[in-house]
């Protein structure tokens, strides 16, 4: 059993024979794609067996049959747009400005247009055209933090789509300015490489505490959603400070200044703090993000309070002989201070 490679395609096969000298005892099994190919060949299994005198002969005949069938299937016929539609698309792109064209597929079914906002930041719009275009509306992908919607009808143009995208990008400039302020004036843990479409930042506050700041792209200067992670006692203090100082939020001030006013202290940045002061990394793998997860399993010893990824702590406890298991839980100790800890298996 194993894989057969035919015309750069791989098929799983399991060939067995009760008596290698007797083709009638051969049995062939495989995956669904192999079954579909044999069906497409129009040949019965017995037809191939009838010509064979050995296992190797059978495999050779079987591979020849598969190769002929694959060649007969060939590549599906590619869709060709009419010259009139292609002329219309090219005319629309000329109105958009050739300097804004990032990509145009050979078939004319995918277009990327780029727009540079007032901050000199480039944003992209991908337009996907179906074979029924322009009767059928295009679909869109963008790097914006909000969905791009355009009311299409047959008389609309791609230039109108691009203009609507540019207007939406311009309206989002205050949002990107707010995110840039957080990136410059706070110790951002996540995302490690922010993109234009990311509407959140997880910021280190010190003492193994971080806060995820989620900003509404439409109203970036209003109070954002704040989600704290860290030792329970420290998190409670921060949540109370936010409640007590919520009236101090000033829409005309920067996001970073408002966060400092809410929390009652200057938010750490890479200019005014050290990595030791804001360390929120996992105590086992020494990283913050692990497959998108943050270290949210904490030692409850207030003198330790080390954070761990759930998966790291589970693997750590799994390797220790003295750890107890109960249902889907491990019961063991903190790797640093031996405080009792538990985690999911």
From TrEMBL:
<dbReference type="Pfam" id="PF11793">
    <property type="entry name" value="FANCL_C"/>
</dbReference>
<keyword id="KW-0479">Metal-binding</keyword>
<dbReference type="InterPro" id="IPR019162">
    <property type="entry name" value="FancL_WD-rpt_cont_dom"/>
</dbReference>
<dbReference type="InterPro" id="IPR043003">
    <property type="entry name" value="FANCL_d3_sf"/>
</dbReference>
<dbReference type="InterPro" id="IPR016135">
    <property type="entry name" value="UBQ-conjugating_enzyme/RWD"/>
</dbReference>
<keyword id="KW-0863">Zinc-finger</keyword>
<dbReference type="InterPro" id="IPR043898">
    <property type="entry name" value="FANCL_d2"/>
</dbReference>
<protein>
    <submittedName>
        <fullName>Putative e3 ubiquitin protein</fullName>
    </submittedName>
</protein>
<dbReference type="GO" id="GO:0061630">
    <property type="term" value="F:ubiquitin protein ligase activity"/>
</dbReference>
<dbReference type="GO" id="GO:0043240">
    <property type="term" value="C:Fanconi anaemia nuclear complex"/>
</dbReference>
<feature type="domain" description="RING-type">
    <location>
        <begin position="282"/>
        <end position="338"/>
    </location>
</feature>
<dbReference type="Pfam" id="PF09765">
    <property type="entry name" value="FANCL_d1"/>
</dbReference>
<dbReference type="GO" id="GO:0008270">
    <property type="term" value="F:zinc ion binding"/>
</dbReference>
<dbReference type="Pfam" id="PF18890">
    <property type="entry name" value="FANCL_d2"/>
</dbReference>
<dbReference type="GO" id="GO:0006513">
    <property type="term" value="P:protein monoubiquitination"/>
</dbReference>
<dbReference type="InterPro" id="IPR013083">
    <property type="entry name" value="Znf_RING/FYVE/PHD"/>
</dbReference>
<dbReference type="InterPro" id="IPR026848">
    <property type="entry name" value="Fancl"/>
</dbReference>
<dbReference type="GO" id="GO:0036297">
    <property type="term" value="P:interstrand cross-link repair"/>
</dbReference>
<keyword id="KW-0862">Zinc</keyword>
<dbReference type="Pfam" id="PF18891">
    <property type="entry name" value="FANCL_d3"/>
</dbReference>
<dbReference type="InterPro" id="IPR001841">
    <property type="entry name" value="Znf_RING"/>
</dbReference>
<dbReference type="InterPro" id="IPR026850">
    <property type="entry name" value="FANCL_C"/>
</dbReference>
<dbReference type="InterPro" id="IPR044037">
    <property type="entry name" value="FANCL_d3"/>
</dbReference>
